[in-house]
Specification:
Blueprint (H helix, E strand, L loop, with lengths): L4 H17 L1 H39 L1 H29 L11 H5 L8
């Protein structure tokens, strides 16, 4: 859900007031989002490889281990995506098209063949 311009303005004002009142606390809050997102992404990578090992190892032992490995891999992928989103949100770039990425526009240009 996107914020309205008024909500964004109020949030920016609150952030500026917090930074002016207590700069150490404001810096601590800014840094914690990146740190947690990084930990979450590393955890997701470890879980993904653990799930991959269970998937491959389960082919030799029992098919349920392979299914469990796949579920762990799927959960790790979701965890990694959430970590990436949190890192983007902490950096303030949730919409990649706002940051100058115009790749979608190139692929959706109308062709000149009249269709």
């Amino acid at each position: 859900m996107a914020l309205t311009e008024e909500e964004r303005r109020r949030l920016a004002q609150l952030e500026a007031d917090l930074a002016a009142d207590d700069p150490k606390f404001a810096n601590a809050l800014r840094g914690s989002g990146h740190r947690w997102a990084r930990r979450q992404t590393v955890l997701a990578a470890l879980l993904f490889f653990l799930g991959l090992a269970a998937l491959v190892g389960g082919m030799e032992l029992h098919w349920l281990i392979s299914v469990l490995g796949f579920v762990v891999m799927l959960g790790a992928a979701v965890l990694a995506l959430r970590g990436f989103e949190q890192a983007d949100a902490a950096a303030g770039t949730t919409d990649h098209r706002q940051s100058g990425d115009r790749s979608d526009e190139r692929h959706h240009r109308p062709s000149g063949d009249g269709n």
